[in-house]
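Summary for the funding panel

The consortium committed to producing paired sequence-structure records for every protein in the target list. Below we show the first two records in order, beginning with the earlier of the two.
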Amino acid sequence: MDDQAALRTTPLHALHISLGAKMVPFAGYDMPVQYPLGVMKEHLHTRTEAGLFDVSHMGQVIVKAKSGEYADAALALEKLVPVDILGLKEGRQRYGFFTDANGGILDDLMITNRGDHLLVVVNAACKDQDVAHMKANLIDCDVTLLEDRALIALQGPRAQAVLAELWAGVSGMKFMDVREVPLHDVPCIISRSGYSGEDGFEISVPEAHAVEVAKALLEHPDCEAIGLGARDSLRLEAGLCLYGNDIDTTTSPIEASLEWALQKARKAGGDREGGFPGAERILGELANGTTRRRVGLKPEGKAPVRSHAKLYADAEGKTELGEVTSGTFGPSVEGPVAMGYLPVSHTDAGTQVYAEVRGKYLPMTVTALPFITPTYKR
């Protein structure tokens, strides 16, 4: 009971309870892992209709230069991330990550140009350290963690139709567009993004109106509340990393196969080459390659292979290669899916490796990511 009492709650906590959610501790919060529909059906509903997720545990942070100029805030944050923020247009969002001096990943995040400031969304488990990191290094900026806003994600092929009931202009948004609009007369910041592999939106809403907006979305017959269980299987099928599992300070962005998130301006020969923590290693790996890479893995049979399972080159477990970082059953692909790290010699699609599960060595096939075809609106 003491552990439960210490957990933080989101503004939607009472709504989850009223909807019959099974609650579990996650990143210091009491969060819904599933609803009566169940993880499998919640997953498939998001792939075919629309699902609503509470992601209010994540950190929403305002970064504003003391000069009031966007360019000053962008250039300051570029000292912490290997991403082109100066070139990010107003009303657009970009994926990025904080790196450390060794080229490891401190956290992954979303960055939005909001005109005269940046909105940075960070992971719940890293929220406090990320804010401290920014405050310590962005001395010419004001860094403010927003404590009075909720964050909900509406995902799936029917997400646009659901949101259009509250705001007709949603059809004009493309992937990674960000707009501030009223929903039920509540000023909300909407991004066309998410972490399911489907079209969808993330909606930042004032805490006092979070339940009102969530209920309005859930009133649509195509929209169901979805828990963390399905969120994990959805993102894994989409080949998306979970911080602390697939990426952390022991992995570089290049090892993690995230080089697509580094723009030309920050690479060798770019206008603002380097200048971020770990640049020597990261740019060196871009030029010369790495010894290992994150890959997709498909186990044989129906049983999932979970994280931390060791991977071997042979069915006898003599030559260890790496380990699984995420693994579950993928309802959309009707079979188990996983990700992990392997030496580059074993990363070609079709390569067979073996996972140790309870003393047995189960065959797995290296597979191109993602496992499903994403439906982002380009």
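The next record, for a separate protein in the list, is shown here:
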Amino acid sequence: MTNRTHREVRLAARPRGPVADDLFEIVEVPVPEPAAGQVLVRTTHMGVAAVMRTLMDETSVVPMPPYEVGAPLHGAAVGEVVAAPGTDLHPGDLVEHRLGWREYALLDAADVHRLDPALLPDPAAHLSQGPTALMGIARGAEVRPGDTVFVTGAAGGVGSLAGQIARQYGATRVIGSTGSQQKADRLIAEFGYDAAVIRGAGPIEEQLRKAAPEGIDALFDNVGGEQLQAALAVANRGARLAIVGALSSQLSDDAPATTAIDTLALLARGITLRGVALFDHLDLIPEWNQRFAAGLRDGSLTFPHARLQGIEQAPRALRELTEGRHMGAVIVEL
């Protein structure tokens, strides 16, 4: 029997700095009734990501609608169909949708995608940021056998997979950046990295030159700022630099961060600098799902993530993600 009420998380106010718990409101509301052609889903897992901090602002350059004050937030989620009158979906079907941050979601059938429950061993794995990681390695940085690859923000949901994928693409040396020695040790021990540079442990360029004495051939950049500048300084001729994220801007309390780029160095050394976003590469999602499934089965890939229990933990999950408290993806199990 479907519950009569459920909880949803609403944006209570626009942030003026870091994510804080008082920016959210948890409200109990009636469970909606699906009409013909609609699907009612009981959400079982939802993901949080750094871009959600950007969407909390009134405007942003991200090609996604910002959150509205007083309305529920939204984001990637997985759940089970409760009712779907007039559609080809059935109660119990496993589906993904974009209306996370609520225990029940009402969607048009076209906005729900049926998942194969046998494909991945854990439904939460459908919320990995692997498609972005694969895109950045394969199409952004165009990683090739023998490459030395630098991944910034390597301990996050994207970076912790990007290093593993770079290894699959034949990289012989993979270097990651992160914010603590503890995370650096785990990158090397668990996630396929050979070395790490640590934010705050000295100039990034000096650390990177020590970690990559022969230079880097490819960059997977989640951060920008000093780390992008260091990569450019250490890049070999013909290096491919992919801009996949911009954490230095997204998580800044001040005006958007800018990065000075030596355009003459790009020209003289034939370096490619390319911004890539997943909405231009959605065809990679099925490929990633198959690659991820095979990698999880044979042990060549892992799914680093933290899991918090209960929708009331969703604000904390986003806050802790932006504070760098976790390794890998951050999932809320409802």
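Regarding this second record: The first strand starts at residue 5 and ends at 11. Residues 6 and 150 are 44 Å apart (CA to CA).
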